[in-house]
Every structure is written in C-alpha cells, then in structure tokens.
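Reviewer 2 asked us to include a model.

Predict the structure of this chain.
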Amino acid sequence: MKIIAISNQKGGTGKTSTTVNLAAALARAGKSVLLVDMDPQGSLTEYFTNPEELKVTMYNALLDGATLTPLVIGEHIQLLPSTIDLAAAEIQLPAKRNQERTLSRFLRQFVGKFDYCLLDCPPSLGVLTANALTAAHLVLVPVSTELMAERTVKLILNTIEDIKEIELNPSLKVWRILATIYDQRLAHHKEILAALRAKYGSQLYPEPVRATTKYKDAVTSGTDISDFDPKLGEFWDELAGTLIAETQEQQ
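Predicted model (structure tokens):
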C-alpha cells in the first residue's frame, strides 16, 4: 500500500478536491483506495457523508485506540472519517509516546488490503500533519495559482526536509507539486505558473488544475469531476496513470 500525503499548510489550495478526484481516477484504473481525513475541518468526510451520524472517527482511533472500520463510499474507495473532534488531537497527541508515529502504527492494519492510501492533511504544520508526513511514502503538494505559491511550497518542502533530517521518515519524497485553481485568462496566474515551472522544473506536474465552477457542482453532488465533465476527468486519469506507473517502478 503506497501512502500519499496531500499537503499544503495554506487553506484554499484544493487539497480535498485533489484527494477526491485522484482517488476516483485511481479507482477507475482498478486500484483500491483508502482515504484518510486528517483535517479537523472534515471537508473530505462531509464530501461523502453526514459527520453528525458518525460514532467513531479518526480522533477515537488515534487517541483511544478505538476500532474504526472504513466507510465504503464507492467502488474500490473507502474512507476513514474525521470531525472537528480531531482538533483536540493537536493538544492531546503530544502526550503520547512516539506521538509522530501514531498514524503510522494505526495504518499498519490496512497494508495489503488497499493499493493506495491518500491522506487529506490539515492546512497547518502541526502534529497531525507531522503524523501524516511520517506515515507517507510520497507527498503531493497542491498549490493555488491565486496565492503566494512559491512561499507556501517552500514552507512545506522545508517541513518535509525537517521530517527527514530528524529521521521520522528519512525516505519521504515529494512526488509532485500540482498547480491548482488556474485561470489562463488572468495574467498573474500565468506569471505564478511560469515562476513555479522555472523554480521546480519536473517536480511540478506539467498541467495545472483549471479553475471551473464544475468542481463546486461535484462537491454539491458528492461525486467526482468526471461525472460533470469527462474531459476534466481525463486530467485526473492521466495524473493517476502517472502515479501508478511511477510507484510500480519503485516496487
């Protein structure tokens, strides 16, 4: 099971949308996917279910060792949900021994049961993100072309290096930086994308995620973008294909 953290400490970069649409594309390719909502905002969980109906979440699993059975949300896709309760973990987890490895230990039970595990990380660099980066094999960094892209990428890359240097996860690698919410009609979006390409080269996925209201339509319906626009779905199929090809090469 390859574990990929979708992480950026800034909000509004499309982390949850990236997680959902990449998972759907992997599933279309016949791969089994475990989604893990590591964000106390619970956007990934709300995408698929009503959080108020949940009795056991990632908070209970990480803090109390509770049994958490993944929710089946689609063919080949299951979800480990979270709610706002997970915010307390930022305070409570540091009291646990080897707290940065809590998620790693929890995920061991799913090894061999799924092809991929996607971690939807919170927009912060706290304990929950540290747990995700310690558990992950690879990191996918969505970065909005609307925001201070280079600065936010630098921060997450520095955090990844810190995780490696203190030997929490020495083999952790950035898989790709993914430009998101890109509007080719706007000059400053073009400038930001050009700057990212110049600075990060092949680390930046060649094509950006285009800005379109269809992504909001997908959120409203609780499905992925391919149901609204097959052409946009092809983008995610290509991204998933690249991930599958490169992770199979590493095995």
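The longest helix spans residues 230-250. The chain has a mean pLDDT of 93. We have added this to the supplementary material.
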